[in-house]
Amino acid sequence: MQNIVQAVLENSALMPDKTAIIVDDKKISYQELAEKILTFSGSLKMRAVKKGSRIAIESDDLISYFSAFLGCLLSGMTAVPVEKDISIYKLHDILKSTKPALIFMKNNGENYEDFFTGSPVPGKITCPKSGSIAAIIATTGTTGKPVQVAHTNKSLLAEAQNLSGGTNITSQTVLFTNEPFDLAVGYRRVFATLYAGGTAVITHKPVTAELLGNYIKKFDINAISIIHTNINMFLDIEDPDLKQTLGCLTAVETTVGPVASIQIRSFCRQYPSTALYNVYGTTESGCILVNCCSENPVERCLGKPTVHSEVFIVDENGDRVETPNQYGYIAVRGDMNMAGYYRKKALTEKVMHSDYIVINDIGYFDNEGYFFFVSRVGDIINVDGHKISPGDIEQAVSGYDGIIDCACTAMEDHDNIQAPILYVVCPDPDFDFDKLQNHLKQNLEYYKVPKKIIPIDKIPRTATGKIMRKSLSMPKKS
């Protein structure tokens, strides 16, 4: 198999009437999806668009978006996903860097429907080579300005195989997700489901427990994928009927960050029949580690490598760390790795070494081969020689009564000496901060106790839920 399109076309031949994608009240079967893919590809050919051209596609009308995405891949084009309702400034940056031959947007450029009304690809269908560039995906920009990541047909297929195998997505899966579909975290869930022959239920609507309950009943959903910060939605439900409905799920997958042990224990106690997966990956490398938290409820554990992933730890010199429990940089080798940062050779060479990628995260592995997350490289706080992960402090606050969200970062004095500070979201105007400080003193080493605790209205996060630590300052609560 050369690419993800081939899998979709094969599934359309095996089960043409099965529903492939549901978007709110619209749905499309595998046969209908295949016809749209072939027609879109034929329209590109009729307009003499050269192979390898970039095609910008807005993730607004999701059925058209995914049909066009796959149609680009079949044609040997490079899909450039664009955020729904993107700002003019971000759009300018994407168009300037990728120079697309065609732009599909609801208010500008081409109209999807004009490319779905032509004739399918004439003659024998030939899938493009596995090594050709298939998509250019923007990172979330957590640690700085977003960059464009180039993926091949081979890497997109390996990503789908890693995710479907790691979280047990099968032809019986009806998976819900509302994660941003222009980003890797969103489209990968859909591709993994289509690869396996399942049904993807997707929406732009904000996820709530009530929405999930309604969708589960309406579409027979049995699995969902949410960002890790939404796990509390399952834990705070008081309605017994809604809790029973959510308890019918066979699997819940959390992405982007680790789930706190207190949340894992609470979830497993309330939903004993539901498998809880935590998936670790990056835009550059896809899903590379999966932990089934319901079987292995260990704090900050990323799990074990997926089928195409060889994960290991390297030191500052790039040498492989063979000793368990020794901190280093997480590195990965495998077919799902990116081809490189688009037109950024120096940046690519900084993270790609020979045939593996070094990720900007610090971690380690234990004696049983499980990998653990410590911190992002730039997030480490140095207190009198002690290296502190902000996550350790955030985990100590997780589940504390009255705290909705929190984030830890470093403050520096005039001598550049660092100390941790903690931002908390707490709606109660009479919240007892002294009591929280005592709680942290009892549960953390002395050097990890925050120097200050600052109330804040909202923790700045990316669209995928990652904390934007550089955006935190010293605000007063409004």
What does this structure look like?
- This protein is of the alpha/beta class and 478 residues long.
- It is 30% helix and 27% strand.
- The chain contains 14 helices and 25 strands.
- The chain has helices at residues 4-14, 30-46, 62-75, 88-98, 112-115, 153-166, 184-196, 209-219, 232-235, 240-246, 261-270, 345-351, 390-397, 433-443, and strands spanning 19-23, 26-29, 54-58, 78-82, 102-104, 133-138, 148-152, 174-177, 199-202, 223-227, 251-255, 275-282, 286-292, 301-305, 310-314, 328-333, 340-341, 352-353, 356-365, 371-376, 381-383, 386-388, 405-412, 418-425, 452-455.
- Strands 1, 2, 8, 9, 10, 11, 12, 13, 14, 15, 16, 18, 19 and 20 form a 14-stranded mixed sheet that branches.
- A hairpin with a 2-residue loop joins strand 1 and strand 2 (26-29).
- The longest helix has 17 residues, at 30-46.
- It is globular.
- The N and C termini lie far apart (56 Å).
- The model has no long low-confidence stretch (mean pLDDT 91).
